[in-house]
DNA sequence: AATGATACTGAACAAATCGTTCGGTAACGA
DNA sequence: TCGTTACCGAACGATTTGTTCAGTATCATT
């Protein structure tokens, strides 16, 4: 990718991040973004079709590497050890605690649902691929899709709760909470 | 309330409902609403400060009576009978199955998260008031706020799953699923 | 160092939407 | 019957949107 392209794209993303932590996504205008990013209006539309596509591209860059590394490190292991000490979920919680890309500011803002929706799409795929490992822990005869849905939503809700409460607990404790409710 | 006011308000709400089932809330314009409602632009702004306030008022009317009746009928009983046959949650699921106010069309649309956010605010209050009844069912030493949050989110997610899957199960079955995971 | 391709600038543009204003009209409640 | 109130309809300036275009700067390649 051309260095000019990269720089413009980065500038737009950076400005977008800033503004997202300040106000609702719906209130943000393209004019505001390009002013803060200091790029021309035409440049913006050369990169992104609309404001919504900007969000989409932003989220993809934000989350893809989380799941890439999660999938890589856990692909060929037994993921769901019973005590949770080596679960993908612990891995994910730790990732958020490290606060890469300042992701916590975004997940703490009023726009958190925006990102968590994208996050959850990825999470569903992960759980789908790991369902056999989870199957053994299932106690009752719930439909598979209900069970999967419950795991994914419980994780996201646990994450939301953790962040909203200032992340006072350790990733290990949170993982324990989560494994307890599912 | 003046009959004229009521009629305008109703017309706006009705048009709003229609459009909400067709496109994203963010894409809806005031001009579109007043055209379908057949009211003047000034009339709209006499009733609602902005599009967001319209949504707020709409949701309040939509959900308040659900929880009013739920609270009334269950206030002085033992809510959480062990088999769930007389739980508030069953009551709520049944309410959705009856599809009052065509609420299912809204909860099936792409805007469902919008309504479920409001719904959940009310649900939290309900759970808060019923926490003592739930306390006994708590198996482990999780923080209270985490426990409450888990119940509320599990209910909403169960509801979403139910609707998304065409509501094939009976309210009793869904209640059983829900009580099983919490 | 020269060359052709590509990305950005900056300004301008029509179109859509916003939120407000106003005088005139009709429906309301008492 | 009468004073009040809500609606209409049209218009308004202000924003925002998405596009266009000619000129400039940067890029990779030879």
Helix and strand arrangement:
Two copies of one chain form a homodimer.
Chain A: H1 3-20, H2 30-37, H3 41-47, H4 51-74, H5 88-98, H6 103-108, H7 112-135, H8 144-164, H9 171-181
Helix pairs in contact in A: 1-2, 4-5, 4-7, 5-9, 7-8, 8-9
Chain A binds a DNA duplex (30 and 30 nucleotides) through residues 2-5, 8, 29-31, 39-43, 45-46, 49-50.
Report on the architecture of this protein.
- Two copies of one chain form a homodimer.
- By secondary structure, the first copy, chain A, is an all-alpha fold.
- Chain A has one domain (3-181): Tetracycline Repressor, domain 2 (Orthogonal Bundle).
- Chain A is built from nine helices and no strands.
- In chain A, α1 (3-20) crosses α2 (30-37).
- The radius of gyration of chain A is 18 Å and the shape is elongated.
- The termini of chain A are far apart.
- The model of chain A has no long low-confidence stretch (mean pLDDT 87).
- The A-B interface holds A 26, 113, 117, 140, 142, 145-146, 149-150, 153-154, 157-158, 161, 165, 177, 180-182 and B 26, 113, 117, 140, 142-143, 145-146, 149-150, 153-154, 157-158, 160-161, 165, 177, 180-182.
- Chain A binds a DNA duplex (30 and 30 nucleotides) through residues 2-5, 8, 29-31, 39-43, 45-46, 49-50.
């Amino acid at each position: 990718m051309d260095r000019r392209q990269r720089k413009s794209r980065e500038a737009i993303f950076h400005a977008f991040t800033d503004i997202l932590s300040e106000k609702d996504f719906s209130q943000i205008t393209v004019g505001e973004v390009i002013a803060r990013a200091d790029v021309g209006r035409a440049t913006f539309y050369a990169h992104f079709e609309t404001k919504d596509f900007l969000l989409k591209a932003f989220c993809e860059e934000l989350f893809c590497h989380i799941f890439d590394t999660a999938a890589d490190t856990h692909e060929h292991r037994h993921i769901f050890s019973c005590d949770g000490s080596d679960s993908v979920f612990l891995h994910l919680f730790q990732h958020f605690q490290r606060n890469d890309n300042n992701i916590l500011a975004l997940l703490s803002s009023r726009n958190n649902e925006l990102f968590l929706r994208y996050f959850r799409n990825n999470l569903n795929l992960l759980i789908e691929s790991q369902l056999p490992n989870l199957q053994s822990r299932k106690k009752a005869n719930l439909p598979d899709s209900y069970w999967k849905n419950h795991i994914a939503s419980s994780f996201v809700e646990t994450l939301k709760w953790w962040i909203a409460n200032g992340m006072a607990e350790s990733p290990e404790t949170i993982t324990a909470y989560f494994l307890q409710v599912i």
